[in-house]
Amino acid sequence: MIEIRGLSKSFVGQDGGRVQALSDVDLDVAENEFLTVLGPSGCGKTTLLKAVAGLVPVDSGEIVVDGTKVRGPGPDRAMVFQNFALLPWATVLDNVAFGLELRGVGRAERQERARALIAMVGLAGFETKRPAELSGGMQQRVGIARALAVQPRVLLMDEPFGAVDEQTRRLLQEELLSIWEESRLTVVFITHSMEEAVLLGDRVVLMSARPGQIAEIVPVPLERPRARSLERSGKYAEITAYLWDRLRDMHEEHRAAR
Ligand SMILES: Nc1ncnc2c1ncn2[C@@H]1O[C@H](COP(=O)(O)OP(=O)(O)OP(=O)(O)O)[C@@H](O)[C@H]1O
């Protein structure tokens, strides 16, 4: 579904030097896979996601989504951001319908589709509210509904639950899993949480610190649908402990190299 080959990307840093955000990254994501991405801060996770979204030009390499080379943003890929990135002046309904408006969908149809998605993410009755009137968790529900409105094949999620409280995060994780289980979506999900990576992912991609590379891909052979009770299983504990060991090793290698 997503094929990433030899992807490299550097930025000019504040001191004028080059920062190598991604270095020769190869990655395949299968159709309908839920892929989670973990790695130290600054290892290039967001850059990788934005490159797939077509939001940043890359220096070399290529990304192919469903047989088509990525040359810019497209309705086949939708992104959900940590800080929600909603239009502050627009209502919930207009925020969700916005992408449809850009695509020329008529008013009646876009409102109907937006209302259905708002109900699906549990926000029926909040259509006329503005983002500032909503909690963080509710704002992210709007972010998810907005991303789904364009009926993407790929959902790119950049630490979507990083800015909400633990209880809300757990609810949103469960809701996202049930949306994904009912859809044919392919999800790439960045997180800082090992527990979240294992609870959600079919595989966990571990990225290493600069230059951003894929250190390892760890399969998560836990049954689906995933229930919370899995968190008490030995296999779950084993995988999270392994991820923690690898991240700690990477941190120490990075420190020793500096
Ligand atoms: N627009 C930019 N201009 C300059 N440097 C950038 C830009 N975007 C990213 N970088 C640099 O590229 C590197 C990778 O950044 P990126 O945001 O992809 O990392 P990340 O793994 O998502 O980090 P975090 O986990 O902290 O969100 C960092 O060193 C960052 O400072």
TrEMBL record:
Keywords, sorted A to Z: ATP-binding, Nucleotide-binding, Transport
Source organism superkingdom: Bacteria
This protein's record includes keyword Transferase: no
SUPFAM superfamilies according to UniProt: P-loop containing nucleoside triphosphate hydrolases
GO molecular function list: ATP binding; ATP hydrolysis activity
Domain ABC transporter: 2-230
InterPro entries for this protein: AAA+_ATPase (IPR003593), ABC_transporter-like_ATP-bd (IPR003439), ABC_transporter-like_CS (IPR017871), ABC_transporter_ATP-bind (IPR050166), P-loop_NTPase (IPR027417)
Protein's name according to its UniProt entry: ABC-type nitrate/sulfonate/bicarbonate transport system ATPase subunit
Keyword ATP-binding (UniProt): yes
SMART domains xref list: AAA
